Amino acid sequence: MEMQQIRYFLAVCDKGSFTRAAQATYVAQPSLTQAIKKLEDELGGELFSRDRGGCRLTALGRLIEPSIRDIVRKTQAVKAEAVRFSRLNTVPLRIGVMTTIAAHHLSPFFADFQQERPHVELELVVDSECNLLNQLDEDGLDLVISAPTSLPAGHYQSLKLYEERYVVVFNDKHRFNQLQQIDLATIQTEPYLDRLNCELRETLRSICQGRQVDLYAAYRSNSEEWILSMVRAGIGVALMPEFTITKNADKIRVRYLSDPEIRRTICAIFPPTAAAKPEVAEVLKSLRMGF
Predict the structure, then answer these.
(1) Quick one: pLDDT at residue 199?
(2) How many Cβ atoms from other residues are within 10 Å of residue 8's Cβ?
(3) CB contact at 8 A, 91 and 52
């Protein structure tokens, strides 16, 4: 199987016709048809069935299409990695960071790591935990830093980095400034700002149901920045991980949630085989020492 055959196969899939595929790949149609025929001979069956409207995948074609696309994606990733290495003479290390993890808490670690290991090129990808783990499974990332509530047994390894408590967040003129302790029952008297990316959202909902607490969501957002902006504006209060709030944050005040006390654990997550890569082993060693 040659990359040219793969390219022509995907062009026919995407364009729905041999003629349009030939035009898109800048090749004569007989050459494209011959390449597809050779691929069919190699795979032992027809990949396309033709009709007046063009062509469509056969059962065999539908079966192999995802794998073919995966080959192209991995080939492109290898080429990109080789180009970066040859141009920069560095080893690329791709780390996924969950959206709700505070950048200011991890940034000093990454700064120290790169200063001590200038041969390692860091690429940080910020996304939801679900998307990051999918990329980890597809070899698009080397490790992920997140706050997992559960992981498939044996599928990943994890390294505990730190814990952080949840705090009640409100603006500097809010009546909560007069309180030293705040529990869930107290929060339900205020408009609540719901963080859609909160990894403990379902856990919190279960706790509220068990305690017959009703948090009225006056505003919902998947952005931590927007939630904090709404807090500053006095629209409501929020529950957030403590390190999300920078020290001396403008017009923001916090208290630890006293009852119940809720914590999350931040971990580095990686496939068992990833630790064998020297650059991954280096960052894991640094993470153990840094937190």
Answers:
(1) 80
(2) 25
(3) no
Comparing C-alpha atoms, which of 215, 212, 171 is closest to residue 193?
Answer: 215
Contacts 24+ apart (CB under 8 A), 123-128: 123/92, 123/93, 123/94, 123/95, 124/95, 124/96, 124/97, 125/94, 125/95, 125/96, 125/97, 126/96, 126/97, 126/98, 126/99, 127/96, 127/98, 127/99, 128/98, 128/99, 128/197
- In this structure, are residues 219 and 235 in contact, taking their beta carbons and an 8 Å threshold? yes
- Average pLDDT per 10 consecutive residues for the chain, totaling 291 residues: 89 90 89 92 91 86 91 83 63 86 87 81 88 89 90 83 94 93 91 87 86 86 90 93 86 92 92 81 85 75
What are the CA-CA distances from residue 204 to residues 45, 58, 211, 228 (Å)? Answer: 54, 48, 11, 19
- Tokens read off for 62: 């539908």
Q: pTM, whole model, 2 decimals?
A: 0.65
- For residues 229 and 171, give the distance between their C-alpha atoms in angstroms, rounded to a whole number: 10
Please report the pLDDT score of residue 87 as a whole number.
Answer: 56
Side-chain half-sphere CA neighbours of 255 within 13 A? 21
